[in-house]
Specification:
Number of strands: 4
Oligomer: single chain
Order of helices and strands: EHEEEH
Shape: elongated
CATH superfamily: Ribosome hibernation promotion factor-like
Helix content: 40-55%
Distance between the termini: 45 Å
Mean pLDDT: 92
Number of helices: 2
CATH architecture: 2-Layer Sandwich
CATH topology: Double Stranded RNA Binding Domain
CATH class: Alpha Beta
């Protein structure tokens, strides 16, 4: 999977990269169809914002989180993306396992 990091008014540290890659490994276990991810770290005056965008086949999972600490914002955003991936997989399996009946 291709991981891109962008830091706006902040520096992307190795600790943040490690947290993001560990979370993406969990997401990859759920979907196993993701091709790329883009993580954007933004720092304003007193707030840190983490935005995660994951491109999977046929869909794009996006989440944003804001916190006083960058690590907390990243964890929250990754958790939101993971929940989106789980819901997407459940929808996919429901459609696959229970197709619509043919009209008679």
């Amino acid at each position: 999977m291709i991981m891109e990091y962008t830091g706006r008014h902040t520096i992307v540290t190795p600790k943040l990269k490690a947290l993001a890659e560990a979370a993406m490994a969990r997401i990859a276990l759920v979907t196993n169809r993701c091709t790329s991810a883009h993580v954007i770290f933004t720092e304003d005056k007193y707030r840190k914002i983490a935005e995660v965008s994951v491109q999977c086949r046929g869909e794009k999972l996006v989440a944003t989180s804001e916190s006083a600490e960058m690590e907390t914002a990243l964890r929250d955003a990754m958790q939101k993306v993971e929940l989106q991936a789980i819901r997407s997989k459940e929808r996919y399996t429901t459609v696959r396992d229970h197709p619509r009946p043919l009209p008679v």
